[in-house]
Amino acid sequence: MSRTYTLTTSRGGGINDAIEEEQEFTVTYTISKGYPARGPSYASGGEPAEPPQVELLTVEMDGKPYDGDDVDWLVTFIEENHDWHEAAAELAEYRYEQLRDQRMMED
């Protein structure tokens, strides 16, 4: 089960930016959680670290579809700024509501 997220951010318009005008990007994406490296054990030789995987579903620039190839910065931005705590809190609330509803149906 993959959850879809939406992020809006701006780029450009700063003194040191190559882009003179500020542009607003709205991105719809999915992200899978990465894993840290696991050391060797008696049962396994260990596993390398796996970074989060981001899949961009849609990208809009200033409200219009964006077909540019230079979206690597966006993937990096999402990997560094995705709010894992918010997603975990929403999942916990959803599970609580499901359990509560199930118990109410049993009574």
Summary, kept brief:
The chain has 107 residues and is an alpha+beta fold. The chain contains 2 helices and 4 strands.
Describe, in plain words, how this protein is organized in 3D.
By secondary structure, this protein is an alpha+beta fold. It has one domain (5-82). Helices cover 31% and strands 26% of the residues. The protein has two helices and four strands; from the N terminus they run ββββαα. The protein has a four-stranded antiparallel beta sheet. A hairpin with a 2-residue loop joins strand 3 and strand 4. The longest helix is centred in the last third of the chain and has 23 residues, at 84-106. The model has no long low-confidence stretch (mean pLDDT 84).
Structural class by SSE content: alpha+beta
Computed over alpha carbons, the radius of gyration is: 20 Å
Describe the largest sheet: 4 strands, antiparallel
Order of helices and strands: EEEEHH
Helix fraction by DSSP (H/I, runs of at least 4): 25-40%
C-alpha end-to-end distance:
30 Å
Our estimate of the beta-strand percent is: 25-35%
Number of helices: 2
List descriptors.
alpha+beta, flat, 26% strand, 2 helices
What topology does this entry show?
Elements lengths: L4 E7 L11 E10 L20 E9 L2 E2 L6 H10 L2 H23 L1
Antiparallel strand pairs: 1-2, 2-3, 3-4
